[in-house]
Amino acid sequence: MFKAKILFIGPSEVSDASFDSQMKSGKTALANFLSDTTENVGGEYRPTQGVRILEFESQPEGSGDNKSCEVELWDCSGDFKFESCWPALMKDSSGVVIIFNPDVPSHLKEIETWYAMFISSQGLLDNQCLLIAHHKPGSGVEDERLSLASHLSRLSLVHSNLEEEPEDVRQTFCRYLGNVVNTMSESREREEMSIIT
Q: Which class for 168: exposed (0-12), middle (13-18), buried (19 or more C-beta within 10 A)?
């Protein structure tokens, strides 16, 4: 059984308390939903301190052997005060999901920084990466074209809203996980072949 380490990264919520409930990017909410974890339901927002690791099994869509996969979902804080820890978090990661709030204009610029720090620096392939434009409850999901830098526009982008289309989010993650598992499988096969020859 494959074990995939997936990092959930992206901007943290904005510091203006009047926008607090609407402007965070949604990493923890998505991580809790995908791992079937309930935490702090209906409570006030508390930013992730460093990282939270959620472990669960999932059925990746489109993976060759159609088996379960163990997932380590690393819900990483978007606060730059933890930047010195990020290299340790990146070690042995199988994939990266950048989650941002498309209603916050600064998030569109910030995701370029996240891409450079977590994806480019590790040499991950495009199919090991996913962009999630996470819409807050009540904001509605609009699949509008976002103005992204050219290197970001190569990545899969999905719009999500856990109130309106929760199972679409889960299916999208399972497809993404299938891509990651296939990439891991191909890499393992190449390593085995290099040992044999």
A: middle
Neighbours of 68 (CB within 10 A): 13
Tokens (6 digits) for 69: 């996969």
Burial of 197 (0-12, 13-18, 19+ CB in 10 A): exposed
Give 53-106 pLDDT, tens digit per residue.
Answer: 999 999 888 765 557 889 999 999 888 999 999 999 999 999 999 999 888 888
β 156-160/51-58 pair status: unpaired
Yes or no: say if 28 and 45 are a contact pair by the CB < 8 Å rule.
no
- Please check the confidence at residue 195 and state whether its pLDDT lies above 70: yes
Contact (Cβ atoms closer than 8 angstroms) between residue 1 and residue 26: no
Q: Nearest 5°: CA angle at 5, between 54 and 165?
A: 60
What's the predicted TM-score (pTM) here? 0.85
Average pLDDT over residues 28-54: 77
DSSP structure class, residue 16: -
Q: Which long-range contacts (CB under 8 A, 24 or more apart) does 165-172 make?
A: 165/141, 166/33, 169/30, 169/33, 169/34, 169/132, 170/33, 170/34, 171/61, 172/130
Q: Minimal CA–CA distance to 148: which of 157, 140, 139?
A: 157
